[in-house]
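During the reporting period the student researcher (J.K.) took over the structure-prediction task from the postdoctoral fellow and processed the backlog of single-chain submissions. One of the processed entries is reproduced below for the supervisory committee.
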Amino acid sequence: MRIDSFERTFACVTNIGRRPTVYEDYATTIESYILDFSSDVYGERVRLSFFERVREEMTFPSMLELTAQIRRDVEATRLYFLAHPVS
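J.K. obtained the following structure tokens:
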């Protein structure tokens, strides 16, 4: 993810989907989690580039299982960017 106000690119994991575990028949959303980042950039313009699909959207039986899968997705993303650093 390129954040212009920081003038650099950050590794992130992005979900594009309807969040079926949290909402039933909800609008499609785009959410990104920027690895090792703590600043507030809500409302800022960003540019997303996609490198690899982590998994298909799924419905989980509980929020606990969804949270565990998100942790695995973040870890898989972290390993991907260790092998393929962003510039």
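The committee noted the following: The radius of gyration is 14 Å.
J.K. will present the remaining backlog at the next meeting.
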